[in-house]
Design brief:
Organism (chains A, B): Planobispora rosea
Shape of chain A: globular
Helix content of chain A: 40-55%
Oligomer: homodimer
Radius of gyration of chain A: 20 Å
Strand content of chain A: 15-25%
Structural class of chain A: alpha/beta
Number of helices of chain A: 11
Bound molecules: 3-isopropylmalic acid
Strand order of the largest sheet of chain A: 2-1-3-12-11-4-5-10-8-9
CATH superfamily of the largest domain in chain A: Isopropylmalate Dehydrogenase
Largest interface: A-B, 68 and 68 residues
Cofactor (chains A, B): Mg(2+); Mn(2+)
Keywords (chains A, B): Manganese, Metal-binding, NAD, Oxidoreductase
Pfam families (chains A, B): Iso_dh
GO molecular function (chains A, B): metal ion binding; oxidoreductase activity
Number of domains of chain A: 2
Chain lengths: ~350, ~350
Amino acid sequence: SRNIRLAVIPGDGIGVEVVTEGLKVLDAVGTKLETTTYDLGAKRYHRTGETLPDAVLDELRGYDAILLGAIGDPSVPPGVLERDLLLRLRFELDHYVNLRPVKLFPGVETPLAKSRPEDIDMIVVREGTESLYAGAGGVLRRGTPHEVATQESLNTAFGVERVVRYAFEQALARPRRKLTLVHKTNVLTFAGDLWARTVDRLAPEYPGVQTDYCHVDAASMFFITQPERFDVIVTDNLFGDIITDIGAAVAGGIGRAASGNINPDRTAPSMFEPVHGSAPDIAGQGKADPTATILSVAMLLDHLGLGEEAARVEQAVADDLLERQTNWTARSTHEIGDDITARVAG
Amino acid sequence: SRNIRLAVIPGDGIGVEVVTEGLKVLDAVGTKLETTTYDLGAKRYHRTGETLPDAVLDELRGYDAILLGAIGDPSVPPGVLERDLLLRLRFELDHYVNLRPVKLFPGVETPLAKSRPEDIDMIVVREGTESLYAGAGGVLRRGTPHEVATQESLNTAFGVERVVRYAFEQALARPRRKLTLVHKTNVLTFAGDLWARTVDRLAPEYPGVQTDYCHVDAASMFFITQPERFDVIVTDNLFGDIITDIGAAVAGGIGRAASGNINPDRTAPSMFEPVHGSAPDIAGQGKADPTATILSVAMLLDHLGLGEEAARVEQAVADDLLERQTNWTARSTHEIGDDITARVAG
Ligand SMILES: CC(C)[C@H](C(=O)O)[C@@H](O)C(=O)O
Ligand SMILES: CC(C)[C@H](C(=O)O)[C@@H](O)C(=O)O
């Protein structure tokens, strides 16, 4: 089998711990793997002032994929690492699809009293390179009573069309074949109009797919009251950020939410990361659940064409989650990692 | 007692039905009431092309308060009535506080398996006159592959400070005295910085209030997993739109979510409306729950200084909701209105 060249960015806080377990599982899959670790994150920032040096970014372009733990630390001003490291990676590597499955595994407890695994099984295709995440905006008269602060959402036909097409294809590949656009067309009239027109224009090219529309406020409610309403969702970068955290909550917690920052054109490596953050409050204590990272590893394998291996990892996680229900014991980060690794290897 | 001059805008769909019940309750309170109904909404738009004529807006300025049902109909292009009627009212009448209690009444079923009424009791102070709701933005090369669509979020020290002060005062008046800012400072760095600095700067003036910060994505999750975390929330217009729908869902449904669009300086009348929309799918069938409107009427009474009357209406609703649990029968819109009215009158 081929050799996977993987760049690993453990990052901050629990990122380091969960990535260790992800790599353990990856090893057990039996793929030839060559990993290089990059010390990007808060520590490097404090030591050298660097977030993502251009030379490192260029090097990263040469890998098959990137595995990232988590970025962020309270010792760094808000936005610095997020914007100059995490979001810069997503933008520079053109990760225009931020793929986030929302799936309640059997055995996992959901906070929703009446929802069952068959009710919560969707994929959110979040746009990853536009909208308010572009970083456009400014400030005038900062710190005075006359301060004005702006943020600009930038949206292009090019950027919207490619992610909507990706979402249509995801919908085609699933049994329900339903695609819901989530936006706020009644308030964000310019951007919303572009998104809605794009979905309508492309729909005839995917005759098997049923399309639907939902305002982001209503969708946020339906994630809780009628999650079965959704199959594939396509949405803007900011709305996708919010609804995938709601999705993580209803699917049993952020400890199980995986994601892929995908460049479908493969002009640069895609990057896989758990949806959760660096959780400085529990860092270094072996309390973090590595499951989200391990599921992200499954997405990584799938992206690299190793579908069988990906399925094996996902099955190992599913079995472990079911086992937790009937036979629950408190396990540390690396115990969970070991158990899932054993299932993958065995 | 004094005469309340009330402008009533039933609007579209179920708006008409729920407002009828709200007025019934208001009558039963025993205040002297003088109401004038305005036919703004989809019907008038189709008949005359008008959304909110300047002359009508000027007339509305003369009332003590406005009661609004719901605005919106699928026959009108998205955004037209929302922007030119509903949002125009909020902006022109300077409703800079959009006050939205999120409260699980005893007896009401929540979709959350483990949350109890004491866990879900917060007030969201949503800013009402700035940010992406300003309508700023534009489009270039519409309908071509080179289309660019922008939306601009406009935020001012003036606008942020006044709503943050209002929220601090709300927090002071509640037993827990906790104020949480919800924003996305790590991505919306200019606007987020203004909001965060404003809260920090004003905090020393309210020494009894404990302040906290939460990103909107995490807050959306915590509404589901740890709603007890929140007491008073202050947030931006768009984030407030989204999280109050999550709040409505966890507090047992949009049928119970009340709101006040408040001008605290009383330079123009405040406007009270249920959070739900016009629900064209069930309009005219007597299926709508008027409870959200009746609770909005309680907020209206409170705003007009009729605290005792407001408490009576809220108690009548609380009693009705408790009764529904033990003695449930399907009731039509006006039956629910009649039952609550009887409790208020009795
Ligand atoms: C850390 C932050 C910039 C990031 C985002 O907003 O995209 C995170 O919330 C996520 O969802 O991956
Ligand atoms: C109808 C729409 C413009 C409105 C809003 O976004 O404010 C509604 O969702 C609300 O919350 O009152």
